[in-house]
Design goal:
mainly beta, Elongation Factor Tu (Ef-tu), domain 3, 14-stranded mixed β-sheet, eleven-stranded parallel β-sheet, elongated
Length: 647
């Protein structure tokens, strides 16, 4: 018996019902109690069918959320549900996009609280706009075919093309046609505009299916001027997508969101009027093997934009480029990205002053891993390249390249298997006042750290400190001729060679516990060199390991040592006045020999267990020695004795 038929029986009138002999029927209290008990039970059952619970632990945030709950509830696609904690301080609310068995899927667009929660009460929720009349539709086409009554101010659609396709959204009535694509015109001619704070690209018709072309839908979403979300999916595009003249927006992907390049174009471009925007959490697949035109993944022209936590790979151009083609891309940031297998540079900042690359992982690029550059001759000054890992970038000048930069900081990076470690190239502009500190450069095919001079563009006044360089080809450190006033201190060269060619550089090497201060040119400072110091620029260094030491520029004071490699090779000790002394590091007899000329008889020998002074002139006394040119304090021979002249 239904609730309605039971009520008709309890309150029946036999006269009216045709039983004239019985008279009016008076209901009994028990029947009335039973009726309302049944009504209460029926209502409770209906309410219970619209409510549920879940113990699923979920992060409180917008996006797709999947709850494990009770089966058999009276929930349907497009209904709006609220999942809340017992105390109401944590809430997630949105549309049902799926309900099968015990699995409930909600597209959450409204949250209260943060963190995670695992004890949910799930109930029917009202649509946004409590003071307005709302109306629901399956998709955009259903709205376009409907005359919507005048009292309606808001409505929701369950999907863009079909319910549950991810394109569900709230729309509001507006008096005129909106200037962007986030709009629908109903059959009666009224205009409706997307009323969402965050625009999913699926609300504009993107499918994320990996087929077709989602470029137009993505461009339409970007043009609205609100935060843009890429739900999980593979968004195939055959042409470039561009953000134009937008500020302080977030363009982000849920886990598993990927944009796949399917044409010879760049993928995502932020034009020069875009400022302060953030791109994060999106995978960019360049498919360079299929579309080889040398174009890049993410191209940023405007200032103060950030690319954060993206995975960019397989581009025939650069991975991420912050360029000043139109205006300085100043204060740009590349943070926590993975860039792999791009044919050009992984991450580059041409002319992007005050920019930052932090904690990125770059591998397998055809040129440098990360560069701060002089793309248009302006230079990228006061940049920070910190905490990055660069591996197997086999072209360009090195894992991290610096071109014409002032005041930049390259710190705490790890560079391995590249054509060089940290390299200042300076093709266009000189570099100065930069800091290279705390980096590890190993197993590179060029120097670990290289301060270059290119076409007169030098690297000057930089600090090289606390770095570890090991197993790099030929040299761990090179300072080119023309590079001056650099300070090198506290580094670990791991037994490798360093080459100091520039003037006036302050170089400390822990192996010798000495400071090398170059007043002039210095070359080939080898780990196995017997001497160290300085040479003048006109000396031939092609066949010798030449190093030098300058104590003072006064005439008569030792100014340099030139050490020719090999047993018996003569080394020249030349003072500032031009006088020379020759030194054999080891002659054929195993002696260290000092001579005043190439073949004089006057010499000083150090043997294995003796000293020998040869061809010293014999004088009778100090007066005779003075006449012979022996200075006070000088040594002369008196028969079989050695004397020191004192007067």
């Amino acid at each position: 018996m239904t609730l309605a038929s039971e009520a008709a029986t309890v309150f029946r009138n036999f006269n009216i019902d045709g039983d004239s002999t019985s008279g009016p029927y008076v209901p009994k209290k028990a029947e009335i109690r039973a009726l309302f008990t049944n009504a209460e039970n029926s209502l409770s059952a209906y309410v219970d069918a619209l409510a549920g619970t879940s113990a699923t632990s979920l992060a409180i945030e917008t996006g797709t959320k999947v709850f494990t709950t009770q089966p058999g509830k009276q929930w349907s696609l497009g209904q709006r549900l609220r999942a809340a904690s017992d105390d109401g301080t944590r809430i997630m609310e949105g549309e049902i996009t799926g309900y099968t068995g015990t699995t409930l899927t909600i597209d959450v667009d409204y949250v209260v609280g943060s963190g995670s929660h695992a004890d949910w009460n799930i109930n029917i929720a009202g649509h946004p706009g409590a003071d307005a009349v709302t109306y629901d539709f399956n998709n955009v086409a259903a709205v376009e075919a409907t005359n919507i009554p005048a009292p309606i101010q808001f409505f929701r659609i369950a999907g863009y093309s079909t319910p549950g396709d991810g394109g569900g959204a709230l729309y509001k009535g507006v008096g005129a046609e909106p200037s962007h694509a986030g709009k629908i015109q109903s059959n009666d001619g009224a205009w409706w505009e997307l009323a969402e704070d965050v625009i999913s690209v699926k609300m504009l018709g993107a499918t994320g299916s990996g087929s077709g072309d989602d470029a137009a839908a993505i461009n339409n979403a970007l043009a609205i001027g609100r935060d843009v979300k890429f739900p999980k999916g593979n968004y195939r595009i055959t042409s470039q997508v561009t953000l134009v003249d937008k500020q302080s927006l977030r363009i982000f992907g849920e886990a598993g969101a990927k944009i796949t390049r399917a044409g010879n174009a760049a993928t995502l471009v932020l034009d020069s009027d875009c400022e302060g925007n953030t791109i994060f959490g999106i995978e960019f697949d360049g498919q360079k093997g299929i579309f080889p035109a040398a174009l890049s993944g993410v191209v940023v022209f405007g200032p103060k934009n950030t690319v954060f936590g993206c995975h960019v790979h397989d581009y025939p151009g650069h991975g991420i480029i912050f360029s000043n083609t139109f205006v300085d891309a100043v204060r740009s940031k590349a943070l926590f990205n993975i860039v792999e297998d791009c044919d050009f540079i992984g991450i580059t900042f041409p002319d992007a002053h005050y920019s930052e690359a932090f904690q990125n992982y770059v591998e397998g690029c055809g040129y440098e891993g990360i560069t701060i550059d002089s793309g248009a001759g302006v230079g990228a000054d006061y940049c920070t390249i910190d905490g990055n890992t660069v591996i197997d970038c086999v072209g360009g000048v090195g894992g991290i390249g610096v071109e014409g930069s002032v005041g930049s900081r390259i710190a705490n990076n790890y560079v391995k298997g590249c054509v060089g470690g940290v390299v200042f190239q300076n093709n266009i502009n000189p570099s100065s006042h930069c800091t290279v500190i705390g980096n590890v450069c190993e197993d590179n095919t060029g120097p670990g750290i290289w301060l270059k001079e290119t076409s007169g563009n030098d690297t000057n006044r930089c600090t090289i400190a606390g770095n570890i360089c090991r197993n790099n080809t030929t040299y761990e450190l090179v300072i080119d001729s023309g590079c001056e006033q650099n300070v090198v201190s506290g580094n670990d060269w791991n037994g490798g060679n360093i080459s100091i060619l520039g003037a006036n550089n302050h170089v400390e090497d822990p192996r010798f516990r000495k400071v090398l201060y170059t007043g002039e040119t210095v070359v080939d400072y080898p780990v196995n060199g017997a001497l160290w110091g300085m040479s003048t620029s006109n000396l031939n260094t092609g066949s010798s390991a030449t190093v030098g030491y300058r104590a003072t520029s006064d005439a008569g004071t030792l100014a340099l040592i030139k050490h020719n490699a090999g047993i018996g090779g003569a080394s020249i000790l030349q003072n500032a006045g031009g006088a020379s002394m020759f030194y054999d590091a080891l002659d054929a007899s195993g002696q260290h020999v000092f001579r005043s000329g190439t073949s004089p008889s006057t010499k000083f020998l150090i043997g294995p267990n003796y000293l020998q002074i040869g061809a010293i002139t014999n004088y009778a006394d100090d007066a005779a020695a003075a006449s012979g040119g022996v200075p006070i304090g000088g040594v002369y021979r008196n028969s079989n004795n050695l004397r020191i002249r004192i007067a």
